[in-house]
Amino acid sequence: MPARLKLGFFVLALVSPALAASPGVEYPTGYRQWAHVKSMVIFSDKNPLFAQFGGMHHIYANADAMRAFTKGGTFPDGSVIVFDLLEAKEEDGAYVAHDRKLVGVMRKDRAKYKATGGWGFEGFKGDSHEDRMVKDANAECFACHQKQKDNDFVFSGYRP
Amino acid sequence: MPARLKLGFFVLALVSPALAASPGVEYPTGYRQWAHVKSMVIFSDKNPLFAQFGGMHHIYANADAMRAFTKGGTFPDGSVIVFDLLEAKEEDGAYVAHDRKLVGVMRKDRAKYKATGGWGFEGFKGDSHEDRMVKDANAECFACHQKQKDNDFVFSGYRP
């Protein structure tokens, strides 16, 4: 096969549906007024998630997701969970939130996102509502979330 | 004056209205579903608030208080702001929330709490809804909050 044809095949594979982002996971407008599930500050590279998710993160849930967080059971279609990641700066013995790094979103739709546990995944860079970060939801998101199969692929638990 | 009488006078002074807690500041039932204003982790005694407020704290606001947080201006009567303080433990390069240390509450009622900037103050120990911590709202709370007079005696700003 000539090199050009090989390259064409490779590019096609990269944009094939199996490697696409989750379609239809919209920016979660108004999530800052949703219920707050829990928070964490990842502050050093002793944590394996530091490079990707270092900073202060807050988890928010819409009403559908909150019912599952508080009452247990599977998350119903329409559930949306937000991972809001802010820079954390050390100031006088405290970690204080600064600029937003990204807004991660999980949206439940069992039919639409069958290949990734019923969840669509997206990331929005900084404060942007348009700058999408996820190219391959399966490799970039679900590969890790699938370890949480017994918890409907969700890492966080509600902190009452 | 005999020693017994002196002691009686002293005890009376301790429970006089000027040194009382803020009456009527109830436990803020349901606040964990209110809007989340901001968070901070105070982790070392380099911070002057460490002894009193070390840990991870989250600020929550009811709907009345949220209008002032997002639109500016004075907090209306009925505004309630919650300071939810959890132990923060260091685990693998991250600060993770553990047991609740206290739930601090500010409730706005300009007529009722005239002596403390229009705000009533209370603290509930751990997860208790009854174990009240504030004996002297003026000395224990307002002495510090009055530095924030230009911000209606509130320290936190909303983190959008």
Describe the protein in words.
Two copies of one chain form a homodimer. Chain A has 160 residues and is an alpha+beta fold. Chain A has helices spanning 3-14, 50-53, 63-71, 137-145, and strands at residues 35-42, 55-61, 80-91, 94-108, 119-125. In chain A, a hairpin with a 2-residue loop joins β3 (80-91) and β4 (94-108). The first copy, chain A, is globular, with a radius of gyration of 17 Å. The termini of chain A are far apart.
Return the average pLDDT of chain A rounded to an integer: 90
Poorly predicted segments of chain A: 1-18
Structural class of chain A: alpha+beta
The helix/strand order of chain A is HEHEHEEEH
Instruction: Classify the beta-strand content of chain A into a percent band.
Output: 25-35%
